[in-house]
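Q: Given only this backbone (382 positions), what sequence would you predict?
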């Protein structure tokens, strides 16, 4: 049975606001099950500027841009214009502002946080928005992750009678074609902090660091008690620790507030099964099937099973069906390429690997796909 987990780069509509938990989050914590985390867990670090960041703002070229173009445009050009800081998108790790600046890379939440930290240093108003986008499903280790999207607006915002906004610029890290018609809603900075902590908790989970994961998700709920994504993460932390009653309590509360939260449904089904509560587990599985008859990665998993059986034709068919549902996920292209390679379709395999490389979101993925593509090209030239 799969374990599902919510990894958010943005808070989703069902995860905040009036649907949040009424119970104080302290009621869901059991500190006795966990040791002190191996790393510092503090909200003070998230937006803090490092000395290199301050020196960057004081650089003569940057100061000249800020004077000539104004604080908002000058800052954004200094950070993101080609030939300046050269920031890179990297979805592998959620970094705080100083870490993103040092690495010159980050996922969308990291880049939003770093941008906001610079803007606040310049005295600019900062507003955060959650975007209504189709959720992206990915996998890391043996966890399936769902992610959303967040962006940031810098500068003053005020409305005329037609409700138009002036003197403000929105920074988004999506391609322009995906921004057309994008609907957003404003979220508080406390929610952004909760999202950051929740992401760090999930990353610790992926690495098997349960004590760290618990500390991060606990801190997340201190900043936004209404964030159901963090409650679901806490439930998974308890599942991994083997604390089944605690996991059941937390996940049941999530479903009280969002009855169709399929992530919590799947995780609670797992908790029931591990306690021998088979009928209750199966009842939740039936609810899940009604909500989503063919869940994400359904055909992909069938394709992996076919690859293990060396039935490469069946694997090719399954990976192709998964790609028909989501053409943007790198692993689908990668494994279709491997199936085509085994079938002798070398040119198609190279195209699949090239598409996997293009769709990759982390440095590690890009290195893997690039090496595999070079290997395939070398084989094809013999």
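A: Predicted residues:
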């Amino acid at each position: 049975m799969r374990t599902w987990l919510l990894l958010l780069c943005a808070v989703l509509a069902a995860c905040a606001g009036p649907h949040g938990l009424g119970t104080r989050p302290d009621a869901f914590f059991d500190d006795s099950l966990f040791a002190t985390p191996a790393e510092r867990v503090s909200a003070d670090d998230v937006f803090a500027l490092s000395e290199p960041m301050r020196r960057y703002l004081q650089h003569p070229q940057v100061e000249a841009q800020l004077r000539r173009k104004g604080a908002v445009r000058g800052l954004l050009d200094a950070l993101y214009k080609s030939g300046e800081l050269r920031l890179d998108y990297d979805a592998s790790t959620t970094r705080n502002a100083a870490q993103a600046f040092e690495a010159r890379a980050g996922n969308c939440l990291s880049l939003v946080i770093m941008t906001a930290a610079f803007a606040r240093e310049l005295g600019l108003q900062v507003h955060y928005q959650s975007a209504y986008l189709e959720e992206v499903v990915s996998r890391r280790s043996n966890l399936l992750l769902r992610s959303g999207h967040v962006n940031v607006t810098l500068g003053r915002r005020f409305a005329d009678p037609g409700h138009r906004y002036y003197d403000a610029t929105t920074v988004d890290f999506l391609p322009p074609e995906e921004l057309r018609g994008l609907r957003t809603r404003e979220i508080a900075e406390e929610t952004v902090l909760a999202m950051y902590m929740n992401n760090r908790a999930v990353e610790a989970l992926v690495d098997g660091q349960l004590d760290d994961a618990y500390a991060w998700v606990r801190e997340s709920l201190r900043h936004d008690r209404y964030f159901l994504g963090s409650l679901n993460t806490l439930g998974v932390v308890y599942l991994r620790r083997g604390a089944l009653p605690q996991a059941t309590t937390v996940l049941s509360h999530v479903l009280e507030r969002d009855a169709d939260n399929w992530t919590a449904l799947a995780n609670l089904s797992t908790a029931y099964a591990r306690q021998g509560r088979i009928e209750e587990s199966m009842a939740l599985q039936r609810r899940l099937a009604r909500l989503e008859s063919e869940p994400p990665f359904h055909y992909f998993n069938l394709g992996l099973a076919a690859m293990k059986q060396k039935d490469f034709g069946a694997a090719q068919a399954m990976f192709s069906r998964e790609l028909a549902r989501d053409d943007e996920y790198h692993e689908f292209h990668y494994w279709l390429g491997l199936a085509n390679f085994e079938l002798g379709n070398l040119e198609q395999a190279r195209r699949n690997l090239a598409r996997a490389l293009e769709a990759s979101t982390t440095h590690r993925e890009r290195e893997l796909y690039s090496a595999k593509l070079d290997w395939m090209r070398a084989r094809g030239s013999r």
